[in-house]
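FAQ

Q: What does a record look like?
A: Structure on top, sequence underneath. For example:
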């Protein structure tokens, strides 16, 4: 039932799916989804949490390994970004249809005001704060404002990669493929690492005039 719900929610969103649709896809009696999970909203939560727990575990283990390997120095920015991306975007699981459905679901949730602010905050933010703390160690001169906006850009790139819409396939004329998550991962690692490192180096005096507030006269 969870697999069926995951496939339906990822394809049609929360409002485009009924418990009847899920029951039919799972080949079970209509009453069973409600019996085991409660209302549709609770089933949606259960679907989202199931793989979120695995992703968090993989990422935390990767981050801790990088911190321990670099000690007593902080890990590099690239190592932190790899610890965040590689557990999710590389490995045999990315070819599994269930994980493809889940990635599409995460992209949907992260772009939805009704869901993103709650589910992403509740299930991913505690670990994300650990990654932000690690970035603070590696980028001690970066302001919190730049750090959070940097993560915002990072999260947006990852969300689009997870959606696997096929747009980059068309735009690139087949040079890039949205379902090649390992390739997407490698390019994001270098791009996002460079973005964070450049943001730390940028000072108010070095920014264009349009990016600075004019002083009062």
């Amino acid at each position: 039932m969870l697999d069926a719900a995951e496939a339906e929610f990822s394809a049609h969103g929360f409002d485009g799916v009924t418990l009847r649709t899920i029951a039919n896809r799972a080949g079970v009696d209509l009453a069973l989804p409600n019996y085991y999970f409660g209302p549709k909203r609770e089933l949606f939560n259960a679907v989202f949490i199931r793989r979120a727990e695995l992703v968090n575990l993989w990422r935390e283990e990767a981050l801790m390994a990088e911190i321990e390997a670099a000690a007593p120095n902080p890990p590099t920015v690239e190592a932190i970004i790899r610890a965040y991306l590689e557990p999710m975007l590389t490995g045999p699981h990315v070819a599994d249809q269930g994980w493809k459905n889940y990635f599409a679901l995460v992209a949907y949730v992260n772009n939805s005001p009704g869901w993103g602010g709650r589910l992403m905050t509740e299930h991913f933010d505690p670990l994300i704060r650990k990654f932000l703390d690690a970035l603070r160690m590696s980028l001690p001169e970066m302001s919190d404002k730049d750090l959070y906006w940097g993560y915002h850009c990072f999260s947006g790139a990852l969300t689009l990669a997870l959606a696997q819409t096929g747009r980059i396939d068309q735009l690139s004329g087949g040079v890039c493929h949205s379902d090649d998550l390992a390739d997407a991962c490698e390019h994001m690692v270098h791009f996002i690492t460079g973005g964070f490192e450049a943001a730390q180096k940028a000072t108010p005096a070095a920014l264009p005039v349009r990016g600075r507030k004019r002083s009062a006269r």
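Q: Is there anything notable about this one?
A: DSSP finds eleven helices and no strands in the chain.
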